[in-house]
Amino acid sequence: MSRNFINTLVFLLFLIGNYNFLFSQNTVTKQSPIVPNPSVYIATGEDFNLDNELLINTTNLPLEIQNYLTIEFRKLYGISLRYTTSKGQLNFKTFRNVPKDSYSINVADDITITYSSEQSCFYAVNSFLQLVKQNQDSFVIPKCFVDDAPKFEWRGMHLDVSRHFFSVDEVKRYIDLMAFYKFNKFHWHLTDDQGWRIEIKQFPKLTEIGAWRDSTVIGHANSKPNQYSKGKYGGFYTQAQIKDIVKYATDRYISVIPEIEMPGHARAALAAYPEYSCTGLKHGVEGLWGVFDDIYCSKMETIDFNKKILDEVLSLFPSEYIHIGGDEAPKTRWKECENCQKVMKENGLKDEHALQSYFIKQIDVYLTSKGRKLIGWDEILEGGLSPNATVMSWQGESGGLEAAKQKHAVVMSPSSHCYFDHYQASSSTEPLAIGGFLTLEKVYSFDPIPKELNIQDRVYILGGQANVWTEYIPNIKQLEYMAFPRMLAMSQALWTTQKPTYVDFEKELVVHQFKLLDRLKVNYSKAIMYPKIDYLRTKNGIGIVVHSIVADEKFELEKVEKPSFNNHTVTIHNQITQKDTLYFDRTRKSNFTKISTITVKAETLKKALRFEINSNSTIGLPVNLITKPNPKFNNRENLALFDGVRGSRPWKGDEWLGFDVDTIQFELDLLKSSKIKKMNIGFLMAKSSWIYLPQHVEISVSKDNANWTALPKADATEYFTQKVNKKARYIKVQIIADHKIPEGQPGEGFHPWTFIDEVEVIK
Ligand code: ACM
Ligand code: ZN
Ligand 1: which residues within 6 Å by Cβ? Predict the structure, then answer.
């Protein structure tokens, strides 16, 4: 008999045991208020009333979980719990022959939680905490049956405490919130260029020097020239504090995976011990965000230094996995370093990528000898994967796919779906972030199993993880804002086997989960409730419709600046509803090259959305994109280049089309011949995101689509403009990009991104 069959049988027997409850009433099935959604949720439509107290039978309730339940119940609902060892209102049963980590909750005239392991008892308790609802002055729990087990064994959240430091209490709060949504791996990014955050007793300078930087860049690192705030910034965790946090997490069934970065992102360590760099030159702890050439030298002394650090790390962290980074290590110094070249020669290594592999392998052998497993970012595939290594795939899915094909364990964390430092809304209300665009809906669509992966290799995918890099997250409030509610969508992706539709999930958030987050005083983003804009192509331009998921939301046009709006073409009400459209017409000369600033304020959230429309003579123009943008950056694909919205800098949100090919071509038809003065094309330069200017632009124009005049080939610039001064109707544009990012630049060796927005034909 298969295990699945036995599980199903056990489950059916369990249901029959609850026969009276399930089938004696008018059973209704509803979407569960619990996030992540359990596998089974059946509610009767009736409620169990909670008085000011709840009597709990502690038989079969582990003491740590009892303490957790008491504290959290009071924190959330202000309700006290009373305990007994005989029959209570809430009773616990163990039920061993069900899948690992599974539990069930039966809320009828009394409540029974049945679980298979302590861990699953903890999961049940968190689900139970989420079932409580307020009905006017009293609290109720829906009478229901819940049966549940997780989908993936690795359900991770990461936190970077190097770029910005978070106190012990703040880290514990993060762990609490992880636990509430059933995450079980806390990836603690403890070291990086901008600060070393873990006390290492053998090397005290790591924290005396490495934990402190003298200045920090202000604003976006891509906004040149950089400006810096002066003042010492930093902090670190003592070993006693680390033990305390590890215990705190363990009590919540969360394993803490420390990350000690090597060979790159080591500037803070090298500020303390420059002898482990290639040059030996002393640099301060870095105050700018990015990727830096000074990395660990690969000589034996450095490997030994890192082994000694790891000895102390292992004594603090009992986790099976130890993360050693491995990402973004430029090979610039290694190429010029006698020591590194010697190691390559002695070990027959063909290039610096093989040297990186050699470095990681030493550490892998060491960790394996101590009974631990090495995990690293997907760059550890470079030059060959070390035998026992697990890969955390961040540069898309390809690293994870490759590792799984090589029969290595994988944690999927592609930046396209898992980087919570990216913008979550395109609204002008968003605080500064690193760039990118990751909506709640996109996180919700995340599946750690790549579609291309063979069925037999899927077992290598342990699960997934969201990462919170904190360059632009200076405090816990901002951390919560970036993590929530995206963390809830991630928990659905990693735990839930029966995911509701995104629309149903969104509704449940607004109806129930946001209230829980309010009770927990989480500073979550309400971006999903902000006004949103849809752009439509109309006959002569574009139309803009404002909408919101808030039912009957009203919007007020708060401010309309500078446009010579023509009443024939643009309708302005003081109040607009989800049905109204604002029209921008390219055929009305009065609108040309006028920037209209429009502010729409939503009544419910009092949130204002500001957008600028550049109403020029090509707005809404049809474009034939011969080269398609990459699906990661193709928002409003058919309209983006001519929607009147110029892509913002620093890169923010979704206005840009992103291409990762050598040649980009598109064609325009202006519908009639007219004198064209010039053509503008916006390109983005954001090296740290691997977005580079293309090489050059070739434009041809024609009156009849048969005889073409090529304009001189011109170098691409951020605000590219080329004089045309010709009569034409048809335009062809060809953009030539580099094939590879040059050595020494962020993303070296990869194809650069070309980001384009907006295209304007000036008549
Ligand atoms: C990474 O984002 N550099 C792992
Ligand atoms: Zn070296």
Answer: 327-328, 377, 394
